[in-house]
Amino acid sequence: MIDATEVERALIGKLAADPALAAALPDGVYYDLAPIGSTKFVIVSLSASRGLYEINDGETLRAFIYVVKGVALGTSSSAVAAADKRIQELIDRQPLDLPPEAGATLMVARWVDRIRFTENLNSDIWQHRGARYEITVTPA
Amino acid sequence: MPNKLVLGGFDELRAELAALPDALNHDAEPILVRYARATQAQVVAAYPRVTGKLRDGVRVVERTARGLATLYTLVTSAPYAHIYEFGSVHQRPRATFLPISETGRRQAVVAVAGMVESKGLVVRGAHD
């Protein structure tokens, strides 16, 4: 059985372990929300998922689409730009070490589409930049 | 006596092939409209009703491309739809429009492929 939580854990772990990404956004990599007070961080969040139910009753593969974005406080987008570039280098068509508990091996990890917007929150400007990535796995 | 092979019907076949895109486009249109409207309804139902702007901003845009095909594009036009979808600093992403619209698009493609196959043609890769 494919354990999607372990797939997410592997993805977040890979991003969190990267020194270049940590240099750009030092407050860490989080699922959905960062702790209050964080000003430079990476968010990973599930955007969509699906199986190919036409084949083998859906047990052939699972595709997970994740939002992976850098978030930083300020009008400068240099930190999120560096993070965006590094995230793409780490995920797009790159391997992902999945533990045995994931019950899966990677078929493909790839860039899907771009995310970029600026948020004005109580007069504070926040930069959001990244992409959606597809992580498709097959049962091990 | 020389052998002679005569194949007839080429003119008719050529005429049928020339008319095929228009005929398929005509038959695909109601299918696409049905899926676009159904997907629109699903997105609207999934959005919360607070100010109503998220729900009111979900529209089906119709346009004709180069006179060959009619496109139906589902859009979400509320000014904060992207923040709802991808998250703000203090609010988690709430993936709604993209997963629903992508599923609707795949279902529409499969339905149109079924219609095309019903005409005796072969469609490959229609699952995605």
Describe the model.
The complex is a heterodimer of chains A (140) and B (128). Chain A has 140 residues and is an alpha+beta fold. In chain A, 24% of the residues lie in helices and 44% in strands. Chain A has a single domain, classed as STM4215-like. Chain A contains 3 helices and 5 strands, in the order ααβββαββ. In chain A, strands 1-2-3-5-4 form a 5-stranded mixed beta sheet, with helices on one face. In chain A, 34% of the residues are buried. Chain B has 128 residues and is α+β, with helices and mostly antiparallel strands. Helices cover 54% and strands 12% of the residues of chain B. A two-stranded antiparallel ribbon of chain B has the order 1-2. In chain B, a hairpin with a 3-residue loop joins strand 1 and strand 2 (69-76). Chain B is elongated, with a radius of gyration of 22 Å. The N and C termini of chain B lie far apart (56 Å). The model of chain B has no long low-confidence stretch (mean pLDDT 86). The A-B interface holds A 32-34, 36, 43, 45-50, 52, 54, 65, 67, 69, 71, 115, 117, 119, 121, 126, 128, 132 and B 82-83, 85-93, 95, 98-99, 102-103, 127.
